[in-house]
Amino acid sequence: MHSFDPAVIGPDRSTAGPVSLAQGVYGARGNLELLACDELDGLWVFWFNADLDSDPLETPDVPPGSWSAGLHFAAGARYRQADILQSTLGPDHLEVLACTDDGVLESWFWSPGPGFARRAAAVATGVQHFAASIDHGVLRVTVVTGTGSIVHLASDAVGYPDRHWERAADGPEPGSDHAALAALGAAGIAVDGIRAGTARLASSTRAGGTVELTWRDAEGRIRHLGLPTPRG
Questions:
Q1: How do beta strands 166-167 and 150-155 pair?
Q2: Fewer CB within 10 Å: N-end or C-end of the chain?
Q3: Where exactly are the structural domains of the chain?
Q4: How far is CA 119 from CA 16, 76, 116, 197, in A?
Q5: How far apart, in Å, are the Cα atoms of 133 and each of 97, 137, 161, 202, 222?
Q6: Cβ neighbours, 10 Å, residue 13
Q7: What is the distance between the alpha carbons of residues 129 and 133, in angstroms, rounded to a whole number?
Q8: pLDDT at position 109 over 70
Q9: Each residue's pLDDT tens digit, 195-216
Q10: DSSP letter string over 49-83?
């Protein structure tokens, strides 16, 4: 089902900055996973139940068409950016890349049972911000350092769940909010009520194809809106 009315995610959680959204493989229709930095300590993950009312009800506490209350993890550090990605490895583990206020880019993964676990080795240090992508378990990261240098890194599936990072020739482009702002404006959302730099756009297969829009409103709350993917 689409979220035609903008939903507020985690209204009782103190989070900050842009969020990251990916479609997972869990649930009958592929739930949405959303990652946000806590305002002071750690990270929050929220998930959207994309199942239909006609699907078997597996999570009574998060009924179809609603967001979870959130799970806190990674306590002990303050983060400035974090991304979540669905992997085929594990199988079907989630990957998290998170940059601390000290510029350390950490690598985490989620598996059923143990939950989130941080890998001992950092991806990079001196990081200002980054972009990440995944393809068949291969993670690619573009790092922008505090001095403005751009570094591309990649990690294949050898030795998984451990990851080893090597320099790469290219990588994902750093994110921009231009496409998300255009889509939000076209959907009737007042762009002047969106906090600068927080609008993001992702895509999912739910309901035959959905544009997943996230942003922070003037009060700093996380908002989500799902719209049908344009045809033609």
A1: antiparallel
A2: C
A3: 12-126, 176-232
A4: 24, 15, 10, 29
A5: 10, 10, 17, 12, 23
A6: 16
A7: 14
A8: yes
A9: 999 999 999 998 889 999 999 9
A10: ----TTS----TTS-TT-B---EEE-TTS-EEEEE
